[in-house]
Amino acid sequence: MHVCPVPSTFDDRTLDQFAAGLPPWPPAGRLLVDAHGVTWTSPHGLVALLTLGQWVQEHGGEKPRLALPESEDVRRYWAAAGFVDHAEACYELHGRRPRGRPSGHSETMLEVTKVGAAEDVHEIVARIQTRASALLVGELGLEAKATMGFAMALSEACQNIVEHAGTSGWVAVQAYHYRQRLARKVAVIAVSDAGMGFRASLEATQARNFGDRWRDGTAIEAALLRGTSRFRDPGRGQGLQGIRRYVSRWEGKLSVRSGTARLAMVPAWDDEPPLAEALPFFPGAQVQITIPGKDTARA
Amino acid sequence: MIRTIQVALVLREAVTTPYPNLVTRPTGALVRDRIAAMLEEAECQVAILDFSAVACLDVSCADEIVAKLLLAVPRDAYVVVRGLDEEQREAVEQVLQRRQLAVVVADAPAADVVGWVTDDVRAAFVALAHAGGAGAAELARHLGWDEPRAAAALDVLAAHRVVRRGADGRCHPLQAA
After folding, report:
1. Under CATH, domain A2-96+106-292 is a member of which superfamily?
2. Average pLDDT, stretch B71-80?
3. With DSSP H G I counted as helix, E B as strand and the rest as coil, what are the percentages for chain A, rounded to 5?
4. Which of A227, A235, A245 is nearest residue B90 as measured by Cβ atoms?
5. A238/B60 Cβ within 8 A
6. Strand A282-292 relative to strand A253-259, pairing
7. Which CATH class is domain B1-114?
8. What is the ipTM for the molecules in this complex?
9. pTM of the predicted model, to two decimals?
10. pLDDT < 50: residue spans in chain A
């Protein structure tokens, strides 16, 4: 049994810490993902956990165990966010199942949802529209036109899975107070898949152009900054460009992690380095879109 | 013949989902194929694609519907779009720039050309739309340009099929045609 501790605060930043605790593949024994001490999870953390469980099984590993958090509030949040239902398929769950609703301040805009086909994207976009306007306009204080771009960005992020991953993935959308860096409410789209990742997806068409420099970081750069796609059709590879345009307009942040690298479009309110390489490996690809609420101090 | 096509209606007929959202490439391809068939059937010379009842148009769908339709229609046929909100217009602009295409957007307050166009070409289109039509010499006088500059802008507009050039060499913007 190999124990993989989940950081007490589990989000896009601490995913690296979690990935560092994973054993080399194949592991010597069954994995125990220990979320016992978790006190807070972002939607990114939830979809990343599902990705790991899915990836282990799709690569011939035994279904991992997941020790549920001790905190009743966190367990309730996990259930309310739809995580526990999906986790049953990816993990053997240990610990008390949650009862009731969480008492936290987060607002789930879209529960954790599986993405495997174009029809799923239609369903997801339709579901977000009923809630996006109320939260983006009502809670975050953004202009009404932010809503349609939000749905577009969500659609394109999910289509990356359908078009490129080679397997299914997960999406979750949530609004919460981002006290660490912004002291404002944010809306976060978190998408993760257990697929081939950016490097493998672009390998056949791009690796030769980069020679020795070809690695996870350059593959993400090619896709995110230059709109490169594995398809020869010159119109392909525009989804991430569309997300970039939307994120930039609303002073948001776009972060893409795949394999051992992460590339981010970093706004003024954040201090993350734009490119991080030689990170601990994590399977597939993870995309996070963060849209901040209106800065009432500046308004 | 001019034909106006309600894109949301085509979407409802093309896919089984009840949502007014143009998202995903397969959906865009289905809608484009239907529109192309409608245009062929009607022997349509000018197609006006009306997006006003479409809620969300993502970049992939914009590429499949608008960009690929522009590539597919015969050389003597023209496409105009209208009813785009700001986000949808930017999606259309992005995909057309990528493929070096352009289209007329006939929305208030005035028709505009969107896509792979320079400032000169856009200014020429706006001037044409205001005048209803002009040749190179007339356009040059109107904009204070020399004639070769105006002629070059008109050539680009004609190549993009956002204006129609008459036998007398005068160009007419599509929304006034």
Report:
1. Histidine kinase-like ATPase, C-terminal domain (3.30.565.10)
2. 89
3. 40, 25, 35
4. A245
5. yes
6. antiparallel
7. alpha beta
8. 0.89
9. 0.92
10. 105, 299
